[in-house]
Amino acid sequence: MNVRQLKAFKTVVDYSSITEAAEVFSITQPAMSNMIATLEADVGFALFERTHGRIRPTPEALSLYDEVEKAIAGFEKVIQSVGDIRGLRTGQLRIASMPGPSFGFLPRIVALFHKAYPDVLVSLQTRSSSQVKDWIESQLFHIGLAELPVDTSAINVEPLTMRCVCVLPENNPLRHKRIITPQDLQGDPFISLNADHMTYRRLKSAFEAAGVPWQPQVECQLFAPACALAAQGVGITVVDPFTAQDFAGRGIVTRPFEPSIMHDIGILYPASQPRSRVTAEFALILKGELARFL
């Protein structure tokens, strides 16, 4: 017994005619008769009475009709769901991100994704990198962006390394230089992230290697307030490219910094959870946009 046979049965009942049912199916009348005969053999009882060239459903057929109608509707719903999943017209996407990318960069990526797949429900949540890792490990989110390292096998990581940029107040004389070095910053107020951040340690090493005293005047937890302080003329900072892009045209100028200060982040996935087509498609768009910063 298959769905095509059930649809044939329903059509014959609806039209009270083998010939008309065959026309609906675009097959010959003998082919339709054979399909019904095969179905009767499968169920083990007669479905139609044939008298004087007319066909009528048996009481057993009428008892079966409602269930057949439900089965066909259920099958068609499955076919619709398959099409929706294949065409990304349904589903959910839960994204967890550290603060930097979540203020400007990721909303732009979500907007691109939503334009292409408007029926997918998207959730974007911002937390610290450690919290993002916990969420991904617990399979509460499908994809995440966080600072490295990741020290658990419960998370699959696609590592990315980005070069930080120097952010200057827009009226700072150093804006005329093409590249900024530690020597250029000697005597200028410097804004750093907290001492436990990777860029603090790397900047400190770069200043010391250049023979320049490492004496930050202001420390911040996040790149965004460091940029905001630079825009207010408090000092100079070195930040990730996401944040620098978000602050473009807001009282700052950016320049490359040498030696390179790298910011190590990763795209995270739950290791024990297969990636859905929705997640894979979002990741494809995300990596395409991230490539501009690498």
3D architecture notes:
The chain has 294 residues and is an alpha/beta fold. It is built from 12 helices and 12 strands. The chain has a 5-stranded mixed β-sheet, sandwiched between helices. A 5-stranded mixed β-sheet has the order 9-8-10-7-11. A two-stranded antiparallel sheet has the order 1-2.
- Helical content band: 40-55%
> Any idea of the CATH class of the largest domain?
Alpha Beta
The averaged pLDDT comes out at 93
Strand percentage: 15-25%
Output the helix-strand order.
Answer: HHHEEHEHHEHEEEHEHEHEHEEH
List the helices and strands and how they pair.
Blueprint: H1 3-15, H2 18-25, H3 29-43, E1 48-51, E2 54-57, H4 59-86, E3 92-97, H5 99-102, H6 105-116, E4 121-126, H7 129-137, E5 143-147, E6 155-163, E7 165-169, H8 182-185, E8 190-193, H9 198-209, E9 218-220, H10 223-231, E10 236-239, H11 241-246, E11 252-256, E12 262-270, H12 277-290
Parallel strand pairs: 3-4, 3-5, 8-9, 8-10
Antiparallel strand pairs: 1-2, 5-12, 6-12, 7-10, 7-11
Helix pairs in contact: 1-2, 1-3, 1-4, 2-3, 6-12
